Amino acid sequence: MTHLRPYALVTLVNEWGTRPRVEAGEQGQPFPDPGVVGLDAGADPDDLVRVADLLHPVFAAASVGERVRRLDALLVDTGLTVRLREAPTGQAYEEWEPARAVDALLVATLRTLTEVVLTRGPAAIGVCGGEECVDVWIDAPRGRPRRYCSSQCGGRVRVAAHRRRQRTEERA
Length: 172
Ligand SMILES: [Zn+2]
Description:
CATH class: Mainly Alpha
Bound molecules: zinc ion
Strand order of the largest sheet: 1-2
Oligomer: single chain
């Protein structure tokens, strides 16, 4: 486990994170198979919950500056080391080594999140603006900027706003 795709990272935080599960009323339901995020079936669910709960506040930060500070603090806390290696092709590549073996998954997710924030900007990640949803999202590389985890959540918000306007007009 050295790297996680951004989509897998989003799934991990939303399916194992305490806040997204409680907000969705899913806290009593079993966790999905870790294979959905590319992990072995034997992966420790407690570790997935721990990582998800550490990452959710980075997505939920109220400002871009706060988001960068929270991500930086997690990087410092792991005590990770970035090493440069030479590939057989003559290219160089980097390895992010956790200081503690138990932090392998955490460091892999931090690497993915850091790459997203550096290449697409800290505003390219966030938390759903839907009511009763705190699922996280990462912008598609060339998509429109988003506010919701899914089109369902965005649609529900539009419908609710439409109903509120109608009620106001009926009373007027
Ligand atoms: Zn949502």
